[in-house]
């Protein structure tokens, strides 16, 4: 029997499509992972099969058909946000709002999440599957590789990324795993666990129409002072309609865990926090009632990044947080997501 006919153990299909987008699907007995190869390598499904629970979010816009997305008007903000179905994105070389750097113009969250990638199978056995996805940027001379793998009966998705400078000059880069979460996995009452002693700072500017949730001060997780002076526990997600905000967290170790409000599911994310020392804590709890959310979304982002602040490559370079890559050199990051459930008594 040919490998692609296997319907047990670990298996992989790189010839799938999702609403017209070229896709890859990796599966084992615990997880089904769908990746939009034709759209930035977006991870649009991490389904925990025993609970039929997808921990990636889906926005009200949903995943638009490829022909609809291609026909949509382009804009600096909309190139990312108007086609943001939720899911998880690989972001580089520019993170955050539109900006410029040394004559290059970047739309919201740069270039990598809007490009089609190429895919090949690295390993395909009932014990382990791995795919390799590759792409080249056009604005800056970066070559990218991203690997996804599942092993055995483990509920762990492993992802690793590499970016190489193919140019003739040393170049800075911002690289982030845009990991977001939404219903039905998280909502009011869901909790976040961080390593003890984790610190944070707030985004310096007000980028949300409602003002901001915090008073802008730095602190130690999970205590935060609100814009009205009240003390907030950031580890417990608030009611719908709570103001939005953006914080930069510095965990002492590279992990965090999110548990659903009913405590049935926990997703633990582990990464190399030496290569990505910043964790962007993006909060959209439904208070944003104009573009782009229209009051529809309750979303949480906990995103490992090389750099901060989230206002573009030029600001990260000025802050001294953007790693520089010499010609011919590369940097790598690695991340895993493990899903666990509380056993019934």
TrEMBL record:
One GO MF term attached to the UniProt entry: carbohydrate binding
Pfam families per record: DUF4432
GO biological process, one term: carbohydrate metabolic process
Protein name, per record: Unannotated protein
Organism listed in the record: freshwater metagenome
């Amino acid at each position: 029997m040919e490998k692609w006919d296997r319907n047990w153990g670990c298996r992989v299909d790189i010839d799938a499509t999702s609403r017209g987008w070229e896709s890859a699907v990796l599966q084992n007995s615990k997880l089904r992972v769908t990746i939009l190869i034709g759209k930035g390598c977006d991870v649009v499904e991490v389904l925990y099969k025993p609970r039929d629970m997808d921990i990636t979010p889906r926005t009200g816009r949903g995943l638009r058909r490829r022909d609809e997305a291609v026909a949509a008007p382009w804009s600096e903000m909309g190139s990312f946000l108007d086609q943001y179905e939720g899911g998880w994105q690989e972001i580089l070389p520019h993170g955050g709002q539109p900006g410029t750097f040394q004559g290059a113009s970047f739309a919201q969250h740069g270039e990598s999440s809007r490009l089609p990638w190429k895919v090949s199978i690295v390993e395909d056995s009932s014990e382990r599957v791995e795919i390799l996805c590759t792409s080249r940027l056009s604005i800056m001379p970066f070559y990218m590789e991203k690997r996804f793998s599942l092993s055995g009966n483990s509920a762990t998705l492993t992802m690793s990324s590499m970016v190489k400078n193919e140019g003739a000059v040393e170049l800075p880069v911002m690289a982030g795993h845009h990991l977001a979460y939404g219903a039905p996995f998280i909502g009011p009452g869901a909790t976040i666990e961080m390593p003890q002693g984790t610190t944070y700072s707030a985004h310096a500017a007000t980028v949300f129409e409602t003002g901001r949730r915090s008073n802008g001060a730095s602190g130690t997780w999970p205590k935060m002072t609100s814009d009205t002076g009240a003390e907030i526990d950031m580890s417990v997600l608030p009611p719908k309609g709570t103001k939005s905000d953006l914080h930069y967290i510095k965990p002492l170790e590279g992990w965090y865990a999110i548990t659903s409000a009913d405590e049935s599911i926990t997703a633990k994310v582990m990464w190399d926090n030496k290569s990505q020392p910043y964790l962007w804590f993006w909060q959209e709890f439904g208070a944003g009632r104009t573009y782009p959310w229209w009051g529809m979304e309750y979303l949480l982002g906990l995103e490992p990044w090389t750099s901060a602040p989230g206002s573009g490559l030029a600001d990260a370079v000025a802050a001294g947080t953007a790693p520089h890559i010499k010609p011919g050199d590369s940097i790598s990051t690695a991340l895993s997501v493990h899903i666990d459930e509380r056993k019934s008594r």
